[in-house]
Amino acid sequence: MILPISALAANIASTSGTVAAKTAIRFEELGLSPVALSIGSFQLKWYSLAYLFGILLGYWYMGRMLKAPGAPMAQRHADDLMLYSTLGIILGGRLGYVTFYRPDLYETPLEVFKVWEGGMSFHGGLIGVLLAIGYLVWRNRLSYLRVGDYVACVVPFGLLFGRLANFVNAELWGRPTDVAWAVIFPTDPDALPRHPSQLYEAGLEGLVLGIVLMLLFWKTQVRHRPGFLGGVFLAGYGIARFIVEYFRNPDAHLIEFANQTGMSMGQWLTVPMILIGLYLIVSSRGRTAKPLPATA
């Protein structure tokens, strides 16, 4: 009996999926747990520690950069900025997630503030950090672009740890695939082999972008061109995120949005980042760094 083409295609797809499932990595085999420490009813999760590690490492690296000639602020400014930025990351990240991805949570206001249950948006956190920089600059009469350049160099630390924590949490996984490194996540109700898109983001947004910014800061003089490093970060992150979104599975409640608009919510949010980043890079040629005010 000759099968119709549609039935034959479905049969091939089913066979391919079965083979991929047999060769895929099962998340449980990795021995990872979202809980780092458990004492009685108290649980300390890697997701929380990832934010802590990212902030502390970023603070340490900021101190190293401020020792280089021509720094736009003093160490005491960095101390204040750490506090402001931490608040901006937490509040902005959570409100950004609710606004961009889960507006339905506004119907139950208490759910909005349950940060410990997960659900943070990078774009919301970025807005929070930008506001934190603005407050610091306003209080101390500093250069917004130059302070922003230095902050841009430390953000990849947080992105790296944050995306690794997403992987450990078995969340934000990718689209179904048959690649050799596909992972079957226990949180996937379909139990399909999927792209470990969290690791793609950790590699591109955290590791690669971080190394590029380090090399530009220490091996060139572009840190004296206000806005350049910030522009590289915005454009670099935007491009990396735009690419990874093709491998990342859209949130269930946003699949229809992606189908209607042709791009995911994450991609739409990166477009202005890329454009602003490119503008800052190009326009930085006409800007020069000014000395730190004596009274700052």
From TrEMBL:
The chain crosses the membrane at residues 45-61, 81-100, 120-138, 150-168, 199-218, 227-244, 264-282. It comes from Blastomonas natatoria. InterPro entries: Lgt (IPR001640). Catalyzes the transfer of the diacylglyceryl group from phosphatidylglycerol to the sulfhydryl group of the N-terminal cysteine of a prolipoprotein, the first step in the formation of mature lipoproteins. The keyword Signal does not apply. Its main location: membrane. Pathway: Protein modification; lipoprotein biosynthesis (diacylglyceryl transfer). A 1,2-diacyl-sn-glycero-3-phospho-(1'-sn-glycerol) binds at residue 163. It holds the Pfam family LGT. It is a multi-pass membrane protein. One of its GO terms (molecular function) is phosphatidylglycerol-prolipoprotein diacylglyceryl transferase activity. This is Phosphatidylglycerol--prolipoprotein diacylglyceryl transferase. Its EC number is 2.5.1.145. It is found in: Cell membrane. Keywords: Cell membrane, Lipoprotein, Membrane, Transferase, Transmembrane, Transmembrane helix. One of its GO terms (cellular component) is plasma membrane.
